[in-house]
Write a structure and sequence with these properties.
The complex is a heterodimer of chains A (275) and B (553). Chain A contains six helices and ten strands. Chain A has 275 residues and is of the alpha+beta class. Chain B is built from 19 helices and four strands. Chain B is globular and about 80 Å long. The chains are: A alpha+beta (275), B mainly alpha (553).
């Protein structure tokens, strides 16, 4: 060591340090934790599998058929942005912003893109139809699109309603409202979301939004309550029985204040299949 | 109980836990970094490293060791990623693309943990354990070492030395991080975080489909990701993923892991300079800023003032049901107030002003309480700037903790402060200057600018969270953000070590009638004021074009 030039010495120590610490922190530590975890907490260390390999109690699933249509006898999960929905190899969120309200309408050579607002409105309408309640929400058209105008000096355009759809309002502040034409650039207009007169929505917030992970195993108590009558009808069992199972699979706030009450959808559906 | 009341109690319970923990942990850290004895394990490590543990180093030697260690670390992490397919436990992953591997190596070595990749489809188990998690430990230990070196500068007089880098690195790792991580990992597994070496496991879903349940050594990495304020998730969904953060109480525990060391270090500082009350003042500055930010973020997110949250009825896009809006907002604030960058909800979909808070937290320079070590040294630099500003007002040579703040000290402190804003604003300007780079935005209008501003703020401040809609796995962004991370980490570190060296050489100035007391509420208020004003002056124009424009439209 003494014969080495001074500038080189810290590098040799650095190489040794990286090697030694990699063995300690990168192999010995995680492998010891793995060994202990496998012995002490075998189930949770391996993914909390439930229902004889029907899934993980912690990972949400889609309860839809091969065509993506909700299966009526099962409680439905939230919308998911993970891959095609609840794909653990492609987790994540939509990442769409709170003012993402203008769609790109599909047209020739343009696949189109729904804004976050239109996604929310469309999900609300679909959930309302499935559960037999109104899917109306503020800032949504009756057809399940975002109620958004682009206002120009002489006219206004309902940009999320492609022609020949009749716009949700005929006039805006005296201006004639037109339907949206695919391929036309409306960026220069002033964006005006229109609240409309919808009251408190019957479809809860978690039913119309995608989670952060895309794997959210839970739904809110309100969304479970909304779905219970349909599940009871489809299964031909008493609504009370379904409500009891919902309550059994609802986790409240820990210590009364940590987190939010949540219903585990997979465990609830497994319990329904068993009962 | 209403969601708001539960959220407030959640924050209050964390404040109490941190308050209870900061003293014993701060005292432990004091003993770790001041003890003259090496234990048997450490002596063994020093022999393997072939370093002389009892020799103290001048600041240039200390800095050379730190930089050499970081360079070798980057090479090791890069190499392990590029060769992962030829090593065991690759989980079938091909080698990581060159520009992503460079970005990731720099990202983890600089304690940023910015991720331009998706963990579950890019990294094998060995890469996660032996490359990424190792850096989670040592980059945190490096941060603490630099902070302790600066504190020694204040504590010592007429000394040429500021400590021994290798000793600080090893002690921070084996006496602090490793034992805490070990216990924390088992707690997380008990809560449902997975810890195995399996590949993916196909299950048959109830409706006849299949689902690939992923495996991996998650808990051992999750715990140090938070404790070391690193933030790089095992999975793309980070701490929103049920295998990283399965329960409401693991969410609380993870927040405590993030806050534990950064809030304990002011106590260590107070003990080391021999005046515990000086540590209290620093702690108070951190606490005031942190609490204000957490409450504001909660208010904005619970208020839900934007078109989509109003249509939905709550700002639930990108958030998990089990955490709800409030505990998600608290996590979002804490992860950006520290240099963590882990997320349990996706900031890109926050309300305009809620999202702005996460950006503003990073723009504060991550000092409330900041990253492990980095928060303390950033805060002490701001304290130096504050006594300078106060000295200007009364026309006296400023001093802090008995050290004169002369031209050299204030130059080093000013350069420190200017480094990250320069990187953030210049980087954002370059990205906005080309249509090709603007095409990476997912959202349009002001929100698109916010995505890019967030990316450079996060990289230059070594945070690592993102407005994740931005497509950043392109060569340009990987290189540009990688350079921001390198300069944003190591330029400030060199400046801080130089400051430490210059302070350690000074002899103490006796306190006089004109000395500004730096342990009273007046000083706490001054530091808070100087910090907020400096940051507002620097970043308001950029924020006005992004989140503020969006929020007021």
């Amino acid at each position: 060591m003494q014969r080495l030039p001074a500038w080189l010495r810290p590098h040799l120590a650095a190489i040794r340090a990286v090697a030694v610490l990699t063995v300690l922190l990168g192999l010995i530590y995680p492998l010891t934790v793995t060994g202990l975890a496998q012995v002490l907490f075998h189930g949770s260390a391996n993914g909390s599998l439930v229902g004889g390999d029907a899934g993980s109690a912690l990972i949400g699933q889609s309860f839809t058929d091969a065509r993506g249509v909700p299966v009526g006898k099962y409680f439905q999960s939230r919308p998911s942005a993970a891959g095609d929905g609840y794909d653990p190899t492609a987790t994540g969120a939509s990442n769409l912003g709170p003012e993402d309200v203008v769609d790109i309408l599909p047209g020739p050579g343009e696949p189109g893109r729904q804004s976050l607002l239109t996604r929310v409105c469309a999900r609300s309408k679909a959930a309302g139809e499935l559960e037999g309640v109104s899917g109306a929400r503020p800032y949504c058209t009756p057809g399940g699109a975002g109620a958004v105008l682009k206002v120009f000096p002489g006219h206004a355009v309902s940009v999320n309603q492609p022609c020949p759809t009749v716009p949700f309002v005929a006039t805006y502040q005296g201006l004639r409202v037109e339907c949206g034409r695919p391929g036309v650039d409306y960026a220069a207009g002033r964006t005006v979301p229109v609240r409309g007169d919808a009251g408190a929505p019957a479809v809860p917030a978690d039913a119309v939004t995608a989670s952060g992970s895309g794997l959210d195993p839970h739904i809110s108590v309100a969304y479970a309550d909304l779905q219970a009558p349909r599940v009871a009808r489809e299964r031909g069992i008493a609504l009370e029985r379904v409500r009891t199972l919902v309550a059994e699979h609802t986790a409240g706030r820990v210590l009364g204040f940590i987190g939010e009450p949540a219903v585990n959808v997979l465990e609830l559906n497994l319990a329904l299949d068993r009962s | 109980m209403s969601a708001t009341a539960a959220g407030a109690l959640f924050v209050a319970s964390l404040v109490i836990a941190v308050a209870l923990l900061h003293r014993p942990l701060g005292d432990h850290l004091y003993r770790v970094y001041t003890s003259a004895r090496h234990n048997a394990a450490e002596r063994g490590l020093y022999r393997l490293l072939a370093v002389r543990a009892d020799t103290e180093q001048s600041w240039p030697v200390y800095a050379r060791g730190l930089l050499a260690f970081s360079v070798i670390s980057v090479l090791a992490v890069y190499g392990l990623q590029r060769l992962q397919d030829r090593l065991p436990l690759s989980a079938g992953m091909p080698p990581v693309t060159g520009h992503i591997a460079w970005n990731t190596a720099v990202s983890f070595v600089t304690n940023t943990n910015w991720q331009s990749y998706s963990g579950e489809s890019t990294m094998g188990h060995l890469t996660q354990m032996a490359a990424l998690a190792v850096q989670n430990f040592v980059s945190a230990a490096v941060g603490m070492a630099v902070a302790i070196a600066l504190v020694r500068g204040f504590a010592r007089s007429r000394s040429g030395a500021i400590g021994n880098f290798w000793v600080d690195l090893v002690r921070g790792t084996v006496r602090v991080l490793l034992p805490m991580a070990f216990i924390g990992a088992l707690v997380l597994v008990a809560g449902g975080v997975i810890q195995n070496l399996s590949g993916t496991h196909e299950v048959g879903t109830l409706t006849g489909g299949t689902q690939a349940i992923t495996g991996g050594p998650v808990a051992s990495q999750e715990v140090i990701k938070l404790l070391g304020t690193n933030g790089g998730g095992f999975y793309n969904a980070n701490s929103a993923h049920p295998f990283e953060n399965p329960a409401t109480w693991t969410n609380w525990f993870e927040l405590l892991l993030i806050l534990a060391i950064p809030f304990a270090l002011p106590r260590t500082f107070g003990r080391m300079v021999g005046q515990v009350r000086q540590g209290h003042a620093i702690l108070a500055v951190m606490g005031v800023l942190a609490l204000a930010s957490v409450l504001l973020t909660n208010a904005f997110e619970l208020g839900g003032h934007a078109t989509v949250p109003r249509a939905v009825g709550a700002a639930m896009e990108g958030k998990e049901v089990r955490f709800g809006v409030s505990d998600s907002a608290t996590f979002g604030a804490v992860t950006t107030l520290t240099s963590t960058g882990a997320v349990n909800s996706f900031h890109d979909s926050y309300t305009p002003f809620g999202g702005m808070m996460t950006m503003a937290n990073m723009m504060l320079g991550e000092i409330a309480p900041g990253g492990v070590g980095a928060g303390l040294y950033g805060m002490l630099v701001l304290a130096v700037i504050t006594v300078f500003v106060a000295g200007l007002m009364v026309g006296r040579t400023p001093e802090y903790l008995g050290k004169k703040i002369g031209p050299r000290q204030i130059k080093l402190a000013s350069l420190y402060f200017l480094t990250t804003p320069a990187l953030v604003l210049i980087g954002t300007a370059f990205a906005m200057g080309s249509p090709e780079r603007r095409a990476s935005m997912l959202n349009s209008g002001p929100h698109g600018l916010s995505e890019i501003l967030y990316a450079f703020t996060s990289a230059a401040n070594n945070n690592g969270s993102a407005f994740a809609g931005l497509t950043v796995n392109t060569p340009w962004y990987d290189v540009a953000l990688g350079l921001c991370m390198v300069f944003g980490r190591f330029l400030p570190i060199i400046l801080v070590l130089a400051l430490a060296g210059s302070l350690a050489r000074q002899s103490p100035v006796p306190e006089g009638a004109g000395t500004l007391p730096t342990h009273r509420p007046q000083f706490v208020g001054l530091v808070v004021g100087v910090t907020v004003v400096l940051v507002a002056l620097t970043f308001l124009p950029a924020l006005a074009l992004g989140p503020i424009a969006e929020g007021l439209s």
